[in-house]
Amino acid sequence: MPDPIRLLVVEDHAFTRDGLIATLHLEPDLRVVAEARSGEEALERLEQVPVDVAILDIGLPGMDGIQTAAEIARRWPEVRIVMLTAHNLRPEVFASLASGADAYCLKSAQPELLLLGVRAAASGSAYLDPQIAHHVLSGVRAPDETVALTPREMDVLRLVADGQGNREIAAALGVSVSTVKLHIQDILRKMQVADRTQAAVKALRSGLL
């Protein structure tokens, strides 16, 4: 028998956390080795215990799940990340993917779907709950052939995809923050997306970057 998948469960509501852990403990190939109530506490646990998959609630107090996912991806790239949320909001989906999440699951879904997401993430695959998959499909279609970004817009888009803020982009390119904002507005319009996170994900998934 292969070693069980080691899990970290991060959920601030004790009732939900306990129920989730109880469900996971029923699976012989899964083992909860740590739990946390906040993003900050999750990072402390990862310093102490080897983990294969971190299951993160998006709506954590303080450092939210998306910020926590990004920090885990930066410090422990070998740890796979499953986002767990009660919402199927499009901005949350794209922000989660951009932060480094490997799976996105809904709390309202059947437990079997969460288990599927955990196992998919642990195996190196990606998983999206069927209820939110259409957000990704509609948001990461390749840019239309008539869309052409200028070289400077491409520079801005690369820095956006790297997670840089407007001030950081302005400093890197030697332009004003106002100029960066104008470039980003033009990029969003040309790529037909609503925000910079969608632009970054769409560019990466479509091969534009």
TrEMBL record:
The UniProt keyword set, sorted, is: DNA-binding, Phosphoprotein
Q: Which residues form the Response regulatory domain?
A: 6-122
Q: What residues does the HTH luxR-type domain cover?
A: 142-207
One of the record's GO molecular function terms: DNA binding
GO biological process assignments? phosphorelay signal transduction system; regulation of DNA-templated transcription
Q: Which residues carry this modification: 4-aspartylphosphate?
A: 57
PROSITE patterns annotated for this entry?
Answer: HTH_LUXR_2, RESPONSE_REGULATORY
Q: Which SUPFAM superfamilies match?
A: C-terminal effector domain of the bipartite response regulators, CheY-like
PANTHER family, from UniProt?
TWO-COMPONENT RESPONSE REGULATOR
* Protein known as: DNA-binding response regulator
Species annotation: Deinococcus irradiatisoli
